[in-house]
């Protein structure tokens, strides 16, 4: 879950004090894809108006058209993992943000997902995580899907891991996790099995609260 947070790279490093809410509203209407108004997004997410303004400026700096396609998303994400290959994990992450599966992520898609990851309940965060692992969106996680995500994470971390991981390490980890989650041993993990297992894992629960006050 922690790797998801580098998406905060879309924030600007410094706020422009001269920009007020009126100008933000004008900027929102100027892009080719016009997102929902700030008031509506404030009602739909757990971000304040000021936080949404900060996030929008950063999003607009990276994506002037108002939407981001998968290649741009991968390029942004790769900047923060130069020691590895983040492209596959970024692909899976992009699909999780692209909730209507139209091949692009709008500002609304971005902040709705981010709101869940940073301010959502444990149940909401686990639902989001399940959707990430459920690659083909059929309502189940297979061992192959879990392995694909795990391999993507190890590829992304690259040389950061110590000691250097052996090639079979992702598969070994998946075997342990999958056996733990697949309670009825039917070869797939349902959302109920996934949530139940995660809620009983202290490490996972601790990680759920790490980023609640990032903004």
What would your notes on this structure say?
The protein is mainly α and 215 residues long. The chain has two domains: 49-119, Recoverin, domain 1 (Orthogonal Bundle), CATH 1.10.238; 122-214, Orthogonal Bundle (Recoverin, domain 1), CATH 1.10.238. Helices cover 56% and strands 5% of the residues. The chain has helices at 21-30, 38-44, 49-62, 70-78, 87-97, 107-119, 122-133, 143-157, 169-181, 191-199, 202-208; strands at residues 67-69, 104-106, 141-142, 188-189. A two-stranded antiparallel ribbon has the order 1-2. Residues 1-20 and 28-32 have low confidence and may be disordered. It comes from Seriola lalandi dorsalis. Keywords: Calcium, Cell membrane, Cytoplasm, Ion channel, Ion transport, Membrane, Metal-binding, Peroxisome, Phosphoprotein, Potassium, Potassium channel, Potassium transport, Repeat, Transport, Voltage-gated channel.
CATH-defined fold name of the largest domain = Recoverin, domain 1
Report helical residue fraction. 55-70%
Structural class: mainly alpha
CATH superfamily of the largest domain: EF-hand
* Cα-to-Cα separation, first versus last residue: 17 Å
Strand count: 4
Question: How many whole angstroms does the radius of gyration measure?
Answer: 18 Å
How many H/I helical runs? 11
Q: Using the 3D structure, state the CATH architecture of the largest domain.
A: Orthogonal Bundle
Order of helices and strands: HHHEHHEHHEHHEHH
Inertia-based shape: globular
Low-confidence stretches: 1-20, 28-32
What is the CATH domain class of the largest domain? Mainly Alpha
The percent range for strand residues is under 5%
Whole-number average pLDDT?
A: 81
The domain tally reads: 2
How does the major sheet shape up? Answer: 2 strands, antiparallel
Strand adjacency order, main sheet: 1-2
């Amino acid at each position: 879950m922690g790797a998801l947070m580098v998406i905060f790279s879309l924030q600007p490093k410094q706020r422009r004090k001269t920009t007020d809410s009126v100008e933000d509203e004008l900027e929102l209407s100027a892009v080719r894809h016009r997102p929902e108004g700030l008031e509506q997004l404030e009602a739909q997410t757990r971000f304040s108006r000021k936080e949404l303004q900060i996030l929008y400026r950063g999003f607009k700096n990276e994506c002037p058209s108002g939407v981001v396609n998968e290649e741009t998303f991968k390029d942004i994400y790769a900047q923060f993992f130069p020691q590895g290959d983040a492209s596959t994990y970024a692909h899976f992450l992009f699909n999780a943000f692209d909730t209507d599966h139209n091949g692009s992520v709008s500002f609304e898609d971005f902040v709705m997902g981010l709101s869940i990851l940073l301010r959502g309940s444990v149940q909401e965060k686990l639902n989001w995580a399940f959707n990430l692992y459920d690659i083909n969106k059929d309502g189940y996680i297979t061992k192959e899907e879990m392995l694909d995500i795990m391999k993507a994470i190890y590829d992304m971390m690259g040389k950061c891991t110590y000691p250097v991981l052996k090639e079979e390490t992702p598969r070994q980890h998946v075997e342990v996790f999958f056996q733990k989650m697949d309670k009825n041993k039917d070869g797939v993990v349902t959302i109920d099995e996934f949530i139940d297992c995660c809620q009983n894992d202290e490490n996972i629960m601790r990680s759920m609260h790490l980023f609640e006050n990032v903004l």
